[in-house]
Amino acid sequence: MKTNNQQPTTNNRKGILLVNLGSPRSTSVPDVREYLDEFLMDEKVIDYRWFFRALLVQGIILNTRPAKSAEAYKTVWTDEGSPLIVITQRIQKKLQKLVDVPVEIGMRYAQPSIEAGIQKLVDQGVSEIVLFPLYPQYAMSTTETVIDKAEEVRKKKFPGIKINYVQPFYNREIYIDCLAESIREKLPENFDALQFSYHGVPERHIYKTDPTNTCNLNDCCSRENNPSHQFCYRHQCFDVTNSVIKKLGLPKEKVMVTFQSRLGKDKWMEPYTDETLETIGKKGVKNLAIVCPAFVSDCLETLEEISVEGKHQFEHGGGENFHYIPCLNDEDRWIDVVKTLCEEKLHEFYLV
Ligand SMILES: C=CC1=C(C)c2cc3[nH]c(cc4nc(cc5[nH]c(cc1n2)c(C)c5CCC(=O)O)C(CCC(=O)O)=C4C)c(C)c3C=C
Ligand SMILES: [Fe+2]
Ligand SMILES: [Fe+2]
To answer: Which of helix, strand or coil describes residue 126?
Structure first.
């Protein structure tokens, strides 16, 4: 790795850990149940006190959801395994060809775990790790829980190593350029609207992670400057959308932002993707393009919930042509962005 004339202050070996959400081991109902149990019992995902979380997850959700989710996973599973894991492995392999430090992957839930990923790096002599949570926007249920887990593992198992975290990159020009170009290439010639569908979160999560208490989940998320923006997932979704459509030269009237994948009875961020898809056909949107920039790799939530279910909802509501725009996945231009963001953090090790 080039060091821009910075000399390493130590000989410590460096490495990169790419972290994604994770998938069940297989599409069997017990494996999906085990995965959902670990995922939904995370207090940063379902943020109730332990007793109420256990009552909801283990007493209610795990009775019915694993069978339903297993069916959905079956529709997207490949011979190599879960799309999310397979794509993350492809990113790893491509990045490994571009950098001269070891690159491993770890998943927040299930396997390969963050601990297994760190162990692989340590086995190669690494003691300074750049950990990259593969989420463009900050959320308590994504970036924050990855960092919590990695710190827990580091303190318990690897107290001698250092970890430097890549920060959410939703407002980095290199990422916006990359996303805009990727969308531009895949947009159909004729479309009435471009829908940006982001994974939703309960509104409570946004209030909870706002250290400034200034976000009202209303117009403040769209303001240019507000102290809450650093931790406001809603703002960060709007920001990505606005920056991309500016690059693409699209009029705002042609663009929609919606939130998908809600679970349970809490109030999640609105408008909801499924409800929007059911109604826009009748409002004149016959040709729709849709993109999901909360995900860098295609997964259950994009391949099944949007490409299959979303298409049905749109057609059921009177829509005609539904065009799903895939995630960045292992596109070369995205791998270059991953490389740049990791290198910045590797260089910080040289500066201390
Ligand atoms: C309270 C529940 C959930 C919150 C909050 C949540 C936030 C959140 N999730 C992602 C990214 C992904 N989620 C995925 C699947 C998934 N998400 C939830 C629940 C919450 N997510 C569930 C129960 C599931 C499992 C599938 C199902 O039963 O519906 C995935 C796909 C995983 C895969 O294997 O393909 C991703 C990726 C983000 C970015 C986010 C907050 C911003
Ligand atoms: Fe999710
Ligand atoms: Fe906000």
So the answer is: strand
3-state helix, strand, coil in the chain (%, to 5): 50, 15, 35
Give residue 351's pLDDT band: very low, low, confident or very high (50, 70, 90).
confident
CATH architecture of the domain with range 13-168+332-351: 3-Layer(aba) Sandwich (3.40)
* Of 274, 287, 290, 289, residue with least CA distance to 319: 287
The closest-lying atom of ligand 1 relative to the alpha carbon of residue 266 is 1
The angle that helices 173-186 and 233-248 make with each other, rounded to 10 degrees, is 60
Ligand sitting nearest the alpha carbon of 259: 1
Closest CA to 262 of 329, 191, 197, 196: 197
Distance (Å) from CA 155 to ligand 1 centroid: 27
pLDDT above 70: percentage of residues in the chain: 97
Which residues belong to CATH 3.40.50.1400 in the chain? 13-168+332-351, 173-325
Among the CATH numbers 1.10.460.10, 3.50.30.10, 3.40.50.1400, 3.40.50.150, which is that of 173-325? Answer: 3.40.50.1400
**ipTM for the complex?**
0.97
Which of 199, 296, 303 is the pocket-test mutation for ligand 1 (most atoms within 8 Å of CB)? Answer: 199
Index of the ligand 1 atom closest to the CA of residue 22: 34
- 170 Cβ closer than 6 Å to some ligand 1 atom: no
**Which pTM does this prediction carry?**
0.96
